[in-house]
Design brief:
The chain has 245 residues and is of the alpha/beta class. The chain has one domain (3-240): NAD(P)-binding Rossmann-like Domain (Rossmann fold). Helix content is 50%, strand content 14%. It has a 7-stranded parallel β-sheet, sandwiched between helices. Strand 5, helix 6 (148-168) and strand 6 (174-180) form a beta-alpha-beta unit. Helix 1 packs across helix 7 (201-214). The chain starts with a strand and ends in a 5-residue tail after the last helix.
């Protein structure tokens, strides 16, 4: 059954897609950089011997999302999996003084996802089958001064995916909320992160694939982030607000 990947230039997206390709699934890579997408698709065609297509998709071009989704389901009528990976970390300090940056963070991590996802969800709902996986983040579990613009957008996305999961359950459509911790990607390049807690895209991609195939609801990846965030969320606000996080 085919997989649609929104934000296919992401290393996490490619790692997850590799697992689907190895299992023989057709893949539609979607994103803004068509030239790069063509290279990725060509590589997958050769390496995994599966049919890979590419489509242009701009997360912030809401007016064209409906046409995009209609096109995708036309060229791939048996589409059964959708993985939404795109996002934008942005700069917290800049977002505090420049709402243009805050707006981009919010729209890239929440509004754009909701716009595309509602259209995909409606199609799956009408067919009474399908699986949608949405990349949120552990950053959405508790607001911290160092990234609360990004974290709040991801918190909203986690709540959105939970509500969507509740809505689509009766139609047999699964919604997976993915909460990665630190991942070794260009988004985190140069950040002073604890090396022991930084996962490879390959590890996260495999976790995503397994969770989608098994119909999971929520995953933390790697798994130890569930314990880390359980501790973080248990700290009383009177103490937490004083911490330099």
């Amino acid at each position: 059954m085919p997989l649609l990947v929104l934000g296919a230039n992401s290393l996490i997206a490619q790692a997850a897609s590799a697992n689907f390709a190895e299992a023989g699934h057709e893949i539609i890579f979607a994103g803004r950089n068509k030239e790069e997408l063509s290279k990725i698709a060509g590589d997958f065609n050769i390496r995994y011997k599966v049919n890979c297509l590419t489509e242009y998709f701009d997360a912030l071009d809401y007016a064209n999302h409906r046409k995009f989704v209609e096109t995708v389901f036309t060229i791939s009528p048996e589409l059964n999996y959708a993985l939404i990976v795109f996002g934008y970390l942005g700069t917290q300090e800049k977002a505090q003084s420049d709402f243009t940056e805050a707006h981009k963070i919010i729209n890239s991590n929440y509004t754009g996802v909701v716009s595309a996802c509602e259209l995909i969800a409606a199609e799956f709902e009408s067919r009474k089958k399908g699986s949608i996986a949405i990349i949120s983040s552990v950053a959405g579990d508790r607001g911290r001064q160092s990234n609360y613009m990004y974290g709040s957008a991801k918190a909203g996305l986690s709540a959105y995916s939970q509500g969507l999961r509740n809505r689509l359950f009766k139609s047999g459509v699964n919604v997976l909320t993915i909460k990665p911790g630190f991942v070794d990607t260009p988004m985190t390049y140069g950040m002073p992160l604890p090396k022991l807690l930084v996962a490879s895209p390959k590890k996260v991609g495999k976790d995503i694939y397994k969770a989608m195939i098994k119909g999971k609801n929520v995953i933390y990846t790697p798994f130890y982030w569930w314990w880390i965030m359980k501790i973080v969320k248990s700290i009383p606000e009177t103490i937490f607000k004083k911490l330099k996080l």
